[in-house]
Amino acid sequence: MNNIWGDMAQYDPVTWNWVIAVYLFMAGLSAGSVLIGIGMRWYSKDKLTESPILKAAAIIGPVAISLGLACLVFDLTKPFHFWVILVNYNFQSVMALGVLALLVYTPLGIAYGLIVLRDELPKWGLGFLSPVAEMLTGWRKAIEVVLFVLAVGVGAYTGFLISAMNAYPMLNTAVLPALFLVSGLSAGAAANSVVALLMFKVDSHDKELSRMHALELPVMATEIMFLFMLFCALYFKGGAAAVALASLTTGVWAGVFWIGVVGIGFGVPLLSMLMPAATRHTKGAMLMVACSGLTGVLALRHFILYAGQSYIY
Amino acid sequence: MNKRYVMVHDENKCIGCQACNVACRSENGTPEGVTRLQVRVEGPFGQAPNLHFKYHRVSCQQCEDAPCVKVCPTGAAYVGEDGIVTIKEDKCVGCMYCVAACPYKVRFVNPETKATDKCNFCKDTRLARGELPACVTVCPTDALTFGDANEPDSEVAKLLNTKPSYQDKIHLGTKPRIYRIPTKRGGIES
C-alpha cells in the first residue's frame, strides 16, 4: 500500500545481510583453526615436525580471514574507500578495535603460514617465498604467541561487533562473544580435519587428529550451553526480548536454526559417535562429520544475524 | 557544549499533512526512495464514533548518548560543537554499522553520496543562516517548536516546562532530544 508519508524500504531493521554472516563465519573459522593448530602444537611433545593439523591451520587461518575481509570490503557502500577505515580510528567503536586487531592478525597469520609450510613452498611452485620463510623462522615463538592472543581477540570480536548494538535484544547479550568464540573453535577443528585429510593425506587414525576430535565434544557441549543461556536470558528479561524467542518457532530462521544448527551442526556429529569405531574413523565418515559441523556454524551465524536483527527493542 | 538544541512535536496540533516531510526533501535535496523525516499516521484507535489517529514523527532523535556515534569506526558520525549529531560524508565508508545500531532506524544510505544520511536539524543550511529548520518553518499548525533548551526564555524551554512531554525509547539510555507532547483526548481533568 502507498503511504502518505512515503517509502518504507529504508526502515527494514535487517541492515546487515548474509555477506556479513559469511564474514563472521570466516573470521571465526580462521581464529578457531589457528587457536587449535597452535594450541595443539604447544600441547604436543614433538616440536620438530609440523603436524598435518598445524599445516592445515597455517593455510586456513590466513585464507579464511582474507576471504572474510574481501566479503566485508565489498559489502561497503564505498568499497574503494576502505582505506579510510584503516587511517581513522574511533576507539569507542568495536569495529575500529577489530580493524586494528585484523590489521596485525592477517599479516601475522600469513607470516606464520609461511613458517609452518616452509618445506611445502617449493612443491607448490612458491619457492621464491622460501627465503622469507627462513628469515621469519627465527621469530617463530614470538609470532606464535602474538597470533594466538590475537586469534582469541578476532574470534570473540565477531560477537562483540554485533552485541554492541543495544537496539537488538538477541544481539545485545554478554554471551554472544563467548558463543561465537567456541563455535569458531568447532568450525576451526572441522576445517582443520578436512584440509589435513584431503591436502596433507593424514591417516584417519592419526594420533593428533583423534586428539583434536576428542576436543570437539566438550566444545560442542559448551556451545549448546551458551545457546541455551542466550535464550534463557531473553526469556527472563521478558517484554521485547522475550518476543525475540519467536524466531525459534516461526519463520524461515526457525528452520535454519532447527535444521541447520541443531540437526546438521549438533545432531550429525553427535549421532556419528554412535557409529562403530571402525566406520567412524574412516575418511569418508570423518569428512562428512566435519562438513556438517561447518554447515552448522555457518547456519548459526546466519540465524543469529538475521533473527537478531529482526526483533528490535 | 552550552547549547542544547531540541525539537518539540506537539501531537495535538499535528494533522499528519506531511508538509514537513516535503519541505525537508526540498531543503536537503533528499533523493527519491529515501527520507530524513516522516510523520506516520497510526490508527485509527478507539471505538467508533470516538476514533482518533496518532501522529508519530520519525526522524533522527539527536540522542545525547548516540549509539551511532559510538559504533562508527572512522568517526564519520560525530557530535558537533552545537551538540548536533552529524556525518562527515568523506569519512564514511558505508559499513552500515550506524544504520544497524540506531534504535530509531532513521539512518539510511544516500544513494547519491553512498554515505549514510539523516536529519541534522538543517545544521549546514538554515541553522547556519540563523533560520529555523525547514520542517518547523513550514508546519501549518505550528506543531513543531525548535530551539535551545538551555536558554530559559526560549520557546522550547517554556513549552517543556509547561506541558507534559515524552521521548521515544528512553529505556535504551540514548537521551533523545525530540520531545513529543502526547495527544490529549477529551475527558475531565482535575
UniProtKB/TrEMBL annotation, chain A:
Is Heme one of the keywords UniProt gives this record? no
Q: Which Gene3D superfamilies match?
A: Formate dehydrogenase/DMSO reductase domain (1.20.1630.10)
Membrane topology, as annotated? Multi-pass membrane protein
The subcellular localization recorded is: Cell membrane
Chain segments annotated as transmembrane: 20-44, 56-76, 96-117, 145-168, 174-200, 221-246, 252-274, 286-307
Per UniProt, the keywords (alphabetical) are: Cell membrane, Membrane, Transmembrane, Transmembrane helix
Q: Which Pfam families match?
A: NrfD
Q: Which domain of life is it from?
A: Bacteria
Listed under GO cellular component are: plasma membrane
Tell me which family the UniProt entry assigns to this protein: Belongs to the NrfD family.
Name the chain's protein. Answer: Polysulfide reductase, subunit C
Q: Which organism is it from?
A: Shewanella sediminis (strain HAW-EB3)
Its organism's taxonomic lineage begins at: Bacteria, Pseudomonadati, Pseudomonadota, Gammaproteobacteria, Alteromonadales
UniProtKB/TrEMBL annotation, chain B:
> Is Cytoplasm one of the keywords UniProt gives this record?
no
What are the GO MF terms of this UniProt record? Answer: 4 iron, 4 sulfur cluster binding; metal ion binding
Q: Which key words are in the record?
A: 4Fe-4S, Iron, Iron-sulfur, Metal-binding, Repeat
Keyword Signal assigned to the entry: answer is: no
List, for all copies, the residue spans of the domain called 4Fe-4S ferredoxin-type. 5-34, 51-82, 83-112
What PANTHER family does the annotation carry? PROTEIN NRFC, PROTEIN NRFC HOMOLOG
Its name, as the record gives it, is 4Fe-4S ferredoxin, iron-sulfur binding domain protein
The organism encoding this protein is Shewanella sediminis (strain HAW-EB3)
What are the top taxonomic ranks of the organism?
Bacteria, Pseudomonadati, Pseudomonadota, Gammaproteobacteria, Alteromonadales
